[in-house]
UniProtKB/TrEMBL annotation, chain A:
GO cellular component: cytosol; nuclear envelope
Organism: Podilymbus podiceps (Pied-billed grebe)
Gene it is expressed from: Cse1l
This protein's name: Exportin-2
Cell compartment(s), UniProt: Cytoplasm; Nucleus
Keywords: Cytoplasm, Nucleus, Protein transport, Transport
Spans through the membrane: none
Start and end residues of each Importin N-terminal domain: 29-102
UniProtKB/TrEMBL annotation, chain B:
Family in the record: Belongs to the importin alpha family.
UniProt-listed SUPFAM superfamilies: ARM repeat (SSF48371)
Protein name, as recorded: IMA5 protein
GO BP, one annotated term: protein import into nucleus
GO cellular component: cytoplasm; nucleus
Domain of life: Eukaryota
Keywords tagged on the record: Protein transport, Repeat, Transport
A Pfam family: Arm
Gene Ontology terms, MF aspect: nuclear import signal receptor activity
ARM repeats: 115-158, 158-186
Record-linked PANTHER family: IMPORTIN ALPHA
Domain (IBB): residue spans on this chain: 1-57
Gene: Kpna1_1
Keyword Amino-acid biosynthesis listed: no
Organism: Podilymbus podiceps
């Protein structure tokens, strides 16, 4: 493309089209631009347009397109063609800085981004004059230009804040420091001078303060990796000025906006960060300045208002104090009783107050409020910062701080008592203060785990929390109600059980509160109380203690789901699940109504599943209903099927992907409840379960395998007789699974069930094929997981069909195959098998090979007999071998595409461990002894001689132990 | 810094394959790039002689007092130096020396530009004029004390052989001045150091060490020797090292603190290298003395002694054991608690390399009570020292047995370690995250994963790790994500195990394990 007017015109047309709302016009234009972007001069045409176009919209569009072009193409990837020709690269680098600086702000931003992308690749080696070019502009006196330079520098240097130290990085930083540090310092000083000359000129001040913010940010980046010599030498200049900026105020810079932070706030906030950086990393050098900063920041806090725009500044400032007050050598700065009192009174208490913005969130944005308040995503909030400062101060001054605050708590409670409807916020602050003072360590699972012993939590609970919750109206003072419920929740391990029991009906009552926060907290608190552990690994609160409340609890929980804003409230659903699990059979009388409500809910949410946690707990609750009911009355399974199958069919037909894995799990649970032959309704579904489309989704595989296993357990004979034509399809599924390193164990689960349950004649014709497949996989991509599953399978096969059959089928595939598998796989790898049942299967299988397989005694396989026995004894006695070869370490479930739709396993649909040799063999060691004894009776003399010639001494000793325990001797 | 992290990353995977503990050891950081000010507690490379009193007294005996005040212009100096009047030569050389000995801003460049350096070197050979020799030697010493370019002019003027032969001058003050000049030349770097060694500087230098050598003189000799041991890339030749070592061993036994200090510095340079270099030093049996000197109340002695021992434990397990046998573990606690941050840092670095050893050495570290000071340092130390302490913990958790790791956790390491996740240093954060993974591996073996999870959460570690999931550094955020996914995301599953599992219905089936693969 030439740099011609015609081309500029064409490009303008296409750029214009890319802004068209109609995709039919927009898309082709975008495609066109993409198709020409490889041409020489394309970027230069864009630069020309963004500078010279008559239309502003085209200028902006060209600048955005240019930046995206740079982003996509500038990097030179090894072994890939260079996507921008060298002359264009040179021209871009030569022009972009002046162009950026002379552009209006909107375009300047795009170009500045482009420069930093280029800089990331080319700076410093391939763009040696960039720094000088930038620094020279500092002299211009034009702060529009200077800010452009500073912004670009910031985007180039900010990576110093997170990259690892390396020679390459430090060489670059050194280069930057040499060229940039002094001019930056001079600019800093000059800018501050100008601020005082222009102290009365609002618009000038704004520009100057923008510069100061950028300069302060650059300071942070340049000082991040280590303290540069230059900045150490010039610490006086920087810190003195930073300090005075912290204390500076100018009415002209104050903004009316209550939410958005102004320039003054942003600058002070960055200065707090800079001071914190020095305090943390360069304490030795910074020590002389630190006390001044502590005082300045503390004064700043005392004088800063409650508006949201100050939030970041205030929380940064408080965090600075919190980090400093914990250091032993700065302890003295806080020690004085007046200082402590003043910090508590003027910094901590005001920042704990419930603000208008909090109240708004409480009412209108309760989800966000709950997340912040309950789940601790409050890291940057004022309350949180204040709370951290309390904890920091408590490290050295727990006694005095607790004393000071007790006074405040009392006076705030008194204020509240005078006129609750006006002063309720005082009580809220009091509760918050007590909470932050008392909690030294906390977890989601247990609430507070370490409390300040100077605070009497139970007394406060009885005197100030319970009365609120006992009040007649659940809707009065909702914030205080939420505070009270939260108090129970987090101090549940500190408050005695009898108090918790008193609270339970109160909490159940508050499930009816209109406020989303209140009824959500009530549900959450109940759920947490129900998971507390008592003695002997039982729950602290027992089903018996809950007996009087079962009906009202269930009624209120389900009613809460009908309250506005809570139709898919995960906390409530989780509380339902937990209540079922705790109450067990006492919920049976309510099941008909419960299951109706759950299925209706299921039907409703399956239209548009949006709350994964809610859905998960809903399915868990369904599973619990089934389990609990059918345990008492197995015949009830039919009524569940009746209630659920209609919804399930709809979910399957509409292919609601999120729910399908759950449906399979619930179906498995239901099918396993059947005691007799498989019902025909299930058999009708069987062919559909083998549909490849279902197996393409990773999340379906575990529950589908589980379901097919249930089919095989309950209906193997029916499948063999009525669906024999589906057996190849079933084995096809096995083949699909075995081909994948991630899913092969699932394939083996299926195969094991087939071998265990299917009548032998029904799979006879496929057996050889199965082994061939397995051997192929063994040959091509052996993994430890595969070998473990393979070993279990062949031993299960051996148990089911006999050792001789195993040997025959192996050797029929390839001569001497059996010996090879013994020697190369079983003997060296058997130790890797893990799991009790799996080990038992292998032990019994190998015992059979040793004692019930004639070729082991009279062919060349005989030489493997003792090594095999030794391996078996090793399996019994040696610790599991869990070494994994190197390359396999990296195979991960994430390597399977589409794992995103992850399988969510339902705990309450859990399957019992199945032991196929359970009946047959109780103690595999004794079983080995007995089998050897039988073998030695059949061929006297052979066994002892084989043992004495090559079994090692230790193994022999173990073996003798088994023989003794079995009271047999070898002949 | 070597790529230790990658090593420890690999170590974990190869855990059962026998450890290569040496891979964990971190040599003294090889930074060719420094952003910081040159360290104040490093030994001085070059020194200028500005002290009048001592030196002048020894020479003024044969001089007229009035000579001292003669002021000459630069032109007069050039003329006199190049002239043949011996009186004027001496006056001019002396005037030059005096200018160069000025307390502030000696005019080294101007003197060099006069072009008189070769002439001054020539004066060194005037054995019949001791005063001239001495003044020239002094002037040249001070020129050589400048930048590399300054030293270069002196060397290229042919000063090396001249000074070496002056070592054997019958006049002690000339010999001493030559020692000083040679020290400055050696201090310039490996190139001139080896040039000196090749000119056979060592035998005459060592010959100056005797029981009757005055202390001041001996200090200079020791300092010059230390510069001959100094610098890497390349190291000083082995046979030179072997010649100097026996003398250095004697010097560390001296009673003078400067002599001990400089000889310790020399030992620290000789140990700052590959394992075979370390071995030569270890073989001399000097370690017990070094460890003793680590407890010296004099910072100038403690600092290099600590560095030397710190270097030794970067070596093989056997070399580290030699340091342990010499008692290093008994003196480290005091140093870890030292008021000076650099001492804390060096001590922690030393400890980190001992912790990189086999579990027996880790056990000795525990037995000698190193865990409490280590935890204190992590909690309250200077940031530089905290960083090293983090490495010590990381190495400990990589090489320690499960029981040892339990002991580490019981000593309270977790809280300060997790607090340091707020450190403003990506590498430190990553090392901590790796350490946390190691702790979880140990917990898994004990079936205590759940408890560790709770502990981490209680100590506010969980929210810090969660926050790191949005860290700008890729490796950091991935490591954080990994821990969260592996140990904290199944939040519900352990939860879902009901307390009401009497009937066994709620047992997890075997396949559950495998899903997690």
């Amino acid at each position: 493309m030439e740099l011609s007017d015609a081309n500029l015109q064409t490009l303008t047309e296409y750029l214009k089209k890319t802004l068209d709302p109609d995709p039919a016009i927009r898309r082709p234009a975008e495609k066109f631009l993409e198709s020409v972007e490889g041409s020489q001069n394309y970027p230069l045409l864009l630069l020309t347009l963004l500078e010279k176009s008559q239309e502003n919209v085209i200028k902006v569009c060209a600048s955005v397109t240019f930046k995206n072009y740079i982003k996509r193409n500038w990097r030179i990837v090894e072994d890939e063609p260079n996507k921008i020709c060298e002359s264009d690269r040179i021209a871009i680098k030569a022009n972009i800085v002046p162009l950026m600086l002379s552009s209006p702000e909107q375009i300047q931003k795009q170009l500045s981004d482009a420069i930093s992308i280029i800089g990331r690749e080319d700076f410093p080696q391939k763009w040696p004059d960039l720094l000088t070019e930038m620094v020279n502009r500092f002299q211009s006196g034009d702060f529009h230009v200077i800010n452009g330079v500073l912004r670009t520098a910031h985007s180039l240097f900010k990576r110093y804040r997170h990259e690892f130290k390396s020679n390459e990085l430090w060489t670059e930083i050194k280069l930057v420091l040499d060229a940039f540090a002094l001019p930056l310092t001079n600019l800093f000083k000059a800018t501050i001078e100008l601020c005082s000359t222009h102290a009365n000129d609002a618009s000038a001040l704004k520009v100057l303060f923008s510069s100061l913010i950028l300069i302060a940010k650059l300071f942070y980046s340049l000082n991040f990796q280590d303290l540069p010599e230059f900045f150490e030498d010039n610490m006086e200049t920087w810190m003195t000025n930073f300090h005075s900026l912290l204390t500076l105020d100018n009415k002209l810079l104050q903004t009316d906006d209550e939410e958005e932070a102004g320039l003054l706030e942003l600058l002070k906030s960055q200065i707090c960060d800079n001071a914190a950086l020095y305090a943390q990393k360069y304490d030795e050098e910074f020590q002389p300045y630190l006390p001044r900063f502590v005082t300045a920041i503390w004064n700043l806090l005392v004088t800063t208002g409650q508006e949201m725009k100050y939030d970041l500044l205030v929380s940064n400032a408080i965090q600075f104090l919190a980090s400093v007050c914990e250091r032993p050598h700065y302890k003295h700065l806080f020690e004085d009783q007046n200082t402590l009192t003043s910090i508590c009174e003027k910094v901590i208490v005001p920042n704990m107050e419930f603000r208008a913005a909090d109240e708004e969130a409480f009412e209108d944005n309760s989800e966000e409020y709950i997340r912040r308040d309950l789940e601790g995503s409050d890291i940057d909030t004022r309350r949180r910062a204040a709370c951290d400062l309390v904890r920091g101060l408590c490290k050295f001054f727990e006694g005095p701080v607790t004393g000071i605050f007790s006074g405040y708590v009392n006076s705030m409670l008194q204020e509240y008592a005078k006129n609750p409807s006006v002063n309720w916020k005082h009580k809220d602050a009091a509760i918050y203060l007590v909470t932050s003072l008392a909690s030294k360590a906390q977890t989601q699972k247990h609430g507070i785990t370490q409390a300040n012993e100077l605070v009497n939590l139970t007394e406060f609970f009885v005197n100030h929390i319970q009365p609120d919750l006992k009040s007649a109206s659940v809707n009065e003072f909702p914030v205080l109600k939420a505070d009270g419920i939260k108090y129970i929740m987090i101090f549940r391990n500190q408050v005695p059980k009898e108090q918790l029991l008193v609270s339970i009906p109160l909490l159940i009552n508050h499930l009816q509160a209109e406020s989303i926060v209140v009824h959500t907290y009530a549900a959450h608190a109940l759920e947490r109380l129900f998971t507390m552990r008592g003695t002997n690994n039982t729950t602290l609160i027992t089903a018996a203690e809950m007996a009087p409340f079962v009906e009202v609890l269930l009624t209120n929980l389900f009613k809460a789901l009908t309250l506005p804003g809570s139709s898919e409230n995960e906390y409530i659903m989780k509380a339902i699940m937990r209540s079922f699990s705790l109450l067990q059979e006492s919920i049976i009388p309510y099941i008909p109504s419960v299951i109706t409500q759950l299925t209706q809910k299921l039907l409703a949410v399956s239209k548009n599943p949006s709350k994964p946690h809610f859905n998960h707990y809903m399915f868990e609750s369904i599973c619990l209903s089934i389990r609990i009911t059918c345990k008492a009355n197995p015949d009830a399974v039919g009524s569940f099927e009746e209630a659920l199958f209609m919804v399930f069919t709809e979910i399957l037909q509409n292919d609601v992907q999120e729910f399908i894995p759950y449906v399979f799990q619930v179906m498995s649970l239901l099918l396993e409840m059947h005691k007799n032959e498989i019902p025909s309704s299930y058999m009708a579904l069987f062919p559909h379960l083998l549909q490849p489309v279902l197996w393409e989704r990773t999340g379906n595989i575990p529950p589908l395998v589980r379901l097919l296993q249930a089919y095989l357990e309950r209906g193997a004979n029916t499948i063999a007789s009525a669906a024999a034509d589906k057996i190849p399809g079933l084995l096809g599924v096995f083949q699909k699974l075995i081909a994948s390193k991630a899913n092969d164990h699932q394939g083996f689960y299926l195969l094991n069930s087939i071998i265990e349950h299917m009548p032998p004649e029904s799979v006879d014709q496929y057996r050889k094929q199965i082994f061939i497949l397995l051997f192929q996989r063994l040959q091509n991509s052996k993994t430890t997981k595969f070998i473990k599953s393979f070993l279990v399978f062949i031993n299960l096969y051996c148990i089911k069909y006999g050792a001789l059959a195993l040997q025959e089928i192996f050797d029929s595939i390839q001569p001497k195959m059996f010996g090879m598998v013994l020697e190369k796989i079983i003997i060296p790898e058997i130790q890797k098998v893990s799991g009790q049942v799996e080990k038992k299967i292998c032990a019994v299988g190998i015992t059979k090979i040793l004692t019930e397989c004639p070729p082991m005694m009279d062919t060349e396989y005989t030489k493997l007999w003792t090594p095999l026995l030794q391996a078996l004894i090793g399996l019994f006695e040696l610790p599991e071998d869990d070494t994994i070869p190197d390359e396999e370490h990296f195979i991960d479930i994430e390597d399977t595409p589409g794992y995103q739709t992850a399988f969510s396993q339902l705990a309450f649909a859990g399957k019992k461990e199945h032991d196929p040799v359970g009946q047959m063999v109780n103690n595999p060691r004794i079983h080995l002894a007995q089998s050897l004894h039988k073998l030695s009776t059949a061929c006297p003399g052979r066994v002892p001689s084989m043992l004495s010639t090559s079994l090692n001494a230790e193994a022999l000793q173990y073996l003798q132990g088994y023989l003794q325990a079995a009271s047999v001797t070898l002949l | 810094m070597p790529v230790v992290h990658e090593h420890s990353e690999r170590m974990r995977k190869f855990k059962n394959k026998g450890k290569d503990a040496a891979a964990l050891r971190r040599q003294r950081a090889e930074v060719s790039i420094e952003l910081r000010k040159a360290k104040k507690d490093e030994q001085i490379l070059k020194r200028r002689s500005i002290s009048f009193s001592l030196m002048d007294r020894s020479v003024s005996l044969g001089e007229e007092k009035s000579n001292e005040n003669i002021q000459l212009s630069l032109e007069e100096i050039v003329e006199a130096v190049n002239g043949s009047n011996r009186e004027l030569q001496l006056q001019a050389t002396q005037a030059t020396r005096r200018m160069l000995s000025r307390h502030k801003d000696p005019p080294i460049n101007q003197i060099i530009e006069l072009g008189i350096i070769p002439r001054l070197v020539e004066f060194l050979t005037h054995a019949d004029n001791a005063s001239l020799q001495f003044e020239a030697a002094w002037a040249l010493t001070n020129i050589a004390s400048g930048t590399s370019d300054h030293t270069k002019v002196v060397v290229e003027g042919g000063a090396i052989p001249a000074f070496i032969s002056l070592l054997s001058s019958p006049h002690m003050h000339i010999s001493e001045q030559s020692v000083w000049a040679l020290g400055n030349i050696a201090g310039d770097g490996p190139l001139y150091r080896d040039a000196l060694i090749n000119c056979n500087v060592i035998p005459p230098l060592l010959a100056l060490v005797s029981p009757v050598t005055p202390v001041g003189f001996l200090r200079n000799v020791t300092w010059t020797l230390s510069n001959l041991c100094r610098n890497k890339n390349p190291y000083p030749p082995l046979d030179a090292v072997k010649k100097m070592l026996p003398v250095l061993i004697c010097l560390v036994q001296h009673g003078d603190k400067d002599i001990i200090s400089d000889s310790c510095w020399a030992i620290s340079y000789l140990t700052d290298g590959s394992n075979d270099r370390i071995q030569i030093v270890v073989d001399t049996g000097i370690l017990p003395r070094m460890v003793e000197l680590m407890t010296s109340p004099e910072l100038v002695i403690m600092t290099p002694a600590l560095r030397a021992v710190g270097n030794v434990v970067t070596g093989t397990d056997e070399q580290t054991q030699a340091a342990i046998d010499a008692g290093v573990l008994a003196v480290l606690p005091r140093l870890l608690r030292h008021a000076k941050p650099t001492i804390q840092k060096e001590a922690a670095w030393t400890l980190s390399n001992i912790a990189a050893g086999p579990s027996q050495q880790i056990q000795q570290l525990i037995t000698c009570g190193l865990l409490p000071p280590l935890v204190e340092l992590l909690d309250k130390g200077d940031f530089k020292a905290q960083k090293e302490a983090v490495w010590a913990v990381a190495n400990f958790t990589t090489g320690g047995t499960v029981e040892q790791v339990v002991e580490l956790v019981q000593s309270g390491v977790l809280k300060p370690l997790l607090n340091l996740l707020l450190a403003k240093d990506s590498k430190t954060i990553l090392v901590i995250l790796d350490t946390i993974s190691n702790l979880f591996l140990a917990a898994e073996k004990l079936g205590e994963t759940e408890r560790l999870c709770l502990l981490v959460e209680e100590l506010d570690g969980l929210e810090k790790i969660e926050a790191l999931q949005i860290h700008d550094n890729n490796m950091v955020y991935r490591a954080a994500l990994n821990i969260i996914e592996k140990y904290f995301s199944g939040e519900e599953n352990p939860d879902l195990q009901p307390g009401t599992g009497q009937d066994g219905l709620y047992d997890f089936s075997v396949e559950k394990q495998d899903f997690n693969f």
